């Protein structure tokens, strides 16, 4: 069985919002979770265009103003929330790296540590 890290409770992320997390305690967010209703989508907080650049312009600001796309503040690339695919911008056709979110019966959200090390 893999080691896991608890992120938060499901209700801690408002509907149609995103939140960044630092599960490895590096001092900065390395992944983020987007909530759309009862669905949660998690990705590594790294733009595929710049390689080591995080996406938000400030803490937890991963989505565009309408809350319909993930946006990279560095160059405005837009990513589909459900798939992580870049639909507009210099990395069009590339994708964010997905991270599996585990939702427990008590509504806590977890990620597997091996998903974070890639």
Key phrases:
single chain; 118 residues; mainly beta; Rieske Iron-sulfur Protein; four-stranded antiparallel β-sheet; three-stranded antiparallel β-sheet; 10 strands; globular
Polypeptide structure, described:
One of its GO terms (molecular function) is dioxygenase activity. This is Ferredoxin subunit of nitrite reductase or a ring-hydroxylating dioxygenase. The chain has 118 residues and is mainly beta. The chain has a single domain, classed as 3-layer Sandwich (Rieske Iron-sulfur Protein), CATH 2.102.10.10. 3% of the residues lie in helices and 36% in strands. The longest helix has 4 residues. The chain starts with a strand and ends with a helix. 27% of the residues are buried.
Task: Return residue spans where pLDDT drops below 50 for at least 5 consecutive residues.
Answer: none
Order of helices and strands: EEEEEEEEEEH
- Measured between the Cα atoms of the first and last residue, the distance is 18 Å
Number of H/I helices: 1
CATH topology heading: Rieske Iron-sulfur Protein
**Count of β-strands:** 10
Q: CATH class, anyone?
A: Mainly Beta
Radius of gyration: 13 Å
Tertiary shape:
globular
| Major pleated sheet | 4 strands, antiparallel
Quickly count the domains: 1
Which structural class do the helices and strands define? mainly beta
Q: What share of the residues does DSSP label as strand, in percent?
A: 35-45%
CATH architecture: 3-layer Sandwich
CATH superfamily: Rieske [2Fe-2S] iron-sulphur domain
Tell me, rounded to a whole number, the average pLDDT.
91
Order of strands in the sheet with most strands: 2-3-4-8
Give the proportion of residues in helices.
under 10%
């Amino acid at each position: 069985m893999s080691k896991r890290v608890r992120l938060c409770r499901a209700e801690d992320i408002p509907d149609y919002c995103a939140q960044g997390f630092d599960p490895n305690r590096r001092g900065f967010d390395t992944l983020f979770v987007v909530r759309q209703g009862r669905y949660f989508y998690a990705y590594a907080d790294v733009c595929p265009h710049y390689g080591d650049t995080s996406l938000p312009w400030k803490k937890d600001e991963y989505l565009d103003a309408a809350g319909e796309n993930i946006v990279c503040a560095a160059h405005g690339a837009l990513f589909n929330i459900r798939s992580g695919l870049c639909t507009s911008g210099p990395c069009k056709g590339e994708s964010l790296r997905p991270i599996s979110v585990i939702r427990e019966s008590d509504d806590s959200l977890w990620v597997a540590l091996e998903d974070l090390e890639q």
